[in-house]
Amino acid sequence: MVIDIHTHILPKDLPDLEKKFGYGGWIRLDHNSNGTANMIKDGEQFRVVKCNCWDPVARLDDCQESGVSLQVISTIPVMFSYWAQPKHTYLLSRLLNDDIASVVQNNPKHFVGLGTIPMQDEKLAVKELERCIRELGFPGIQIGSNINGKNLSSQKFFPIFEAAADLGSCIFIHPWNIMGKNQMEKYWLPWLVGMPAETSRAICSMIFSGIFEKLPNLRVAFAHGGGAFPATIGRIQHGYDSRPDLCAIDNNVDPKDYLGKFWIDSLVHDFDMLEFLLKKVGNKKIALGSDYPFPLGEKMPGLLIKNSNLSKTTKENLLYKNALDWLAIKSNYFE
Description:
By secondary structure, this protein is of the alpha/beta class. Helices cover 39% and strands 17% of the residues.
């Protein structure tokens, strides 16, 4: 079995939300004759996507080629739309979640869904979170690394994490709304430099605020190998030790003690880095994640793990067992 916990999907057709809600900033999808589509935001092209971004048949073909048994599907982070009026993000979240639920319902042995919720409004967020888990049958949700510039440590978001823990929902945290983006747009630096920093920002915010201490059963996975956090844990720990007056004000547990307490995906594109992660977090908290179907993803999901000299046990953990633990589902679910 091979499970990919980090894949993105869109509905084939999106309504004209600018027309519907009366203001811009929304994504629309313009389909081309060659089977691709342009993601358009405020009249400018954001990204070109292929049909495997919305077509389950195309995705299943790709899975068969790469040997992926199951994709965990979640929306593209630009669709989070935390910047919008909460009631409008709530309606968009329902639309996106219903589409994911439909894909899962039609292919329950090959897809598992993660919902999206309007994080800028905790009441609406919890409402949609409850629907995702109780009605749509999702094991969890995907959220951004910050919400309109506010760190995940903000007390505003704690009721959402608390509800997730109570519901048994897992959470996948993906970098978006990248800090400093406007200062480094050239050379694709927001994706190459900003995203790793964003993920570390999210991890440190959750550690230092004590979320993991308050909610010990909360199952959280971070994208892109944990970003810059694993490589800079020495600096983070030293900062914590040398300036507890700045770092330890809400939680007195060493940051390094959280290595191996949360999940990260395997998307690091480098075996030396994968080995480093295994030394830091162990072989029970890394799960295959490819960022399918985008260019920065692993072109053949799982190939880095499969072609490695890791033990059979470690490979099995990374390829599917750790994902099952994070999702809290059993392997025979897919039989």
